[in-house]
Amino acid sequence: MRLSDFEVLSFGCYGALIDRESGIYTALKPLLGNGQVGLSRKDVLAAFTRYEEAQLAETPRMLYSDVLMEVHRRLAREWCVLASADDHALFGKSVPQWPVFADVPAGLQYLKRYFNLVILSNIDRASFVASSRRLEVRFDDVVTAEEVGSYKPEPKNFECLVTRVAKLGFLRRQILHAAQSPIRDLVPAGRCGLAVAWIDRRPEKSGRRALQVPLSESPGHGENAPGGTAGLKAALLRFPVEYHLVMGSLKLDRIDINILSQLQRNGRITNTDLAKAVALSPSPCLLRVKRLEEAGYIVSYNARIDLAKLGETITVFTEVTLNDHHREDFIKFETSIRTIDEVIECHLVSGGYDYLLKFLTRGVSHYQCVVEDILERDIGIAKYFSYIVIKSPIEKLHYPLGKLFNKER
Q1: Under 8 Å CB-to-CB from 401, ≥6 apart: which residues?
Q2: pLDDT, tens digit only, all 409 positions of the chain
Q3: Cα(169)–Cα(167) distance, rounded to whole angstroms?
Q4: Percent of residues in the chain assigned helix, strand, coil, to nearest 5
Q5: Positive or negative CA dihedral for 363, 366, 370, 371?
Q6: N or C end: fewer C-beta atoms under 10 angstroms in the chain?
Q7: Please, which residues bridge with residue 246 across strands?
Q8: Domain definitions of the chain by residue range
Q9: What is the CATH number of domain 3-15+99-251?
């Protein structure tokens, strides 16, 4: 994928172009000082994010300036700091003071030569207008949460972006969405069929290597564009970031499968060790993990318990046949079985019976009590057969993902 494939660059502005974290932290300093709150910058921003996410979920149509006021009020309450209505309002109006990354104006001015530039922001219109003056470029369109009536990562916001860009005369596939947040921008944009670019604004660390953008020509103007390919690359890398193009379709490749394989074997592996295991640098590895989590490929991280150390148990497989086989009969059975803790697996199968259940109980008497309780529920069971497990010579707790899904084999 090359930049020349696109005609429109859309930006998640705050975090990628404007230093959102520094702006928020600076605006919170009066509150921190008044209460002598001894939290680190990281902890302060984490508390802000926690309340911001809660407020956005509760009031998706509230103006962002008002959201900031409510978050400020909640923080003051948590930190036991006295703050006036004027203090809350002042924080709500702080967006125009959030600093622009120093390299952004020149970079945007260069990109404007070759692309239509669009903003997709969670900020309200008035706040964006006030802060955008320092970006020093004219955008072809600006889509705010105020206009959409919801906040990213809602799909509605990205579909609105596509609709607005269509009015400029361009298709979905001609849009590249560039942003800092995987959760709020990159993953939901990918789900909406957009190609995305990660602008990683985290501070440089020793040993981190910037990813190279795969550029082979300037955007739509070939080698005859001013500066040729080197000029374009220099303009993009004027943002001191790791700039990583990722396809929005979330089609898994060999590296994704390898990441999933590693995580299912050791869910507590550090990102650094995981990156080494899959031959990536830490930053793109972390982005891939976040994308896999948000896309639902990774459901949860669990602890493996050694039951033998806790006490004796038995495993029982039970074949169940129902009296009737209408849709409502299956629903009634499954709804009831789902509430029984001792049933740890339930499979609808083909063959001579309907369901195969797996029970885990303290012993035979405990199993019989559970079965009697199920029969008393009158959920349509005609007959059942039980098989107590004597020994489990093979018991794998991970899937052979590489064998099942690695198409590059």
Answers
A1: 257, 260, 261, 264
A2: 566 678 899 999 999 899 999 999 999 999 998 877 788 999 999 999 999 999 998 999 999 999 999 999 999 999 999 999 999 999 999 999 999 988 888 888 878 888 899 999 999 999 999 988 889 899 999 999 999 999 999 999 999 999 999 999 999 999 999 988 888 998 899 889 998 888 877 665 433 333 333 323 333 333 333 333 333 233 343 333 333 333 334 567 888 899 999 999 999 999 999 999 999 888 888 888 887 887 778 888 888 899 989 999 999 999 999 999 998 899 999 999 999 999 999 999 998 899 999 999 999 999 999 999 999 999 999 999 999 999 999 988 888 988 888 655 4
A3: 5
A4: 45, 15, 40
A5: positive
A6: C
A7: 196
A8: 3-15+99-251, 20-97, 252-303, 307-388
A9: 3.40.50.1000
How far, in whole angstroms, is CA 77 from its chain's centroid?
29
308: tokens are 């033998």
23 to 35, 51, 93: CA distances (angstroms): 20, 17, 11
Burial 177-195 (b: 16+ CB within 10 A, else e): bbbbbbebbbbbbbbbebb
How many residues would you count in the chain? 409
Q: Report angle CA 195, 201, 205 to the nearest 5 degrees.
A: 125
Cis peptide before 214 (omega within 30 of 0): no
Contacts of 251 (CB under 8 A, 6+ apart): none
Q: Show the tokens assigned to 268.
A: 């507590």
Tokens of 378: 């009158």
Domain 20-97 has CATH 1.10.150.750: yes
Distance CA 346, CA 325 (A): 17
According to the CATH classification, is domain 307-388 in 3.30.70.920?
yes
Q: How far apart are CA 399 and CA 393, in angstroms?
A: 17
What DSSP element (H or E) covers 172? none
Name the maximum alpha-carbon separation found in the chain: 83
Q: 227 CB contacts (<8 Å, ≥6 apart)?
A: 218, 234, 235
CATH architecture of 252-303: Orthogonal Bundle (1.10)
Is the distance from CB of 11 to CB of 60 less than 8 angstroms?
no
From the list 372, 335, 375, 337, the residue with the least C-alpha distance to 357 is 337
Q: Who contacts 5 (Cβ-Cβ below 8 Å, separation ≥6)?
A: 174, 176, 195
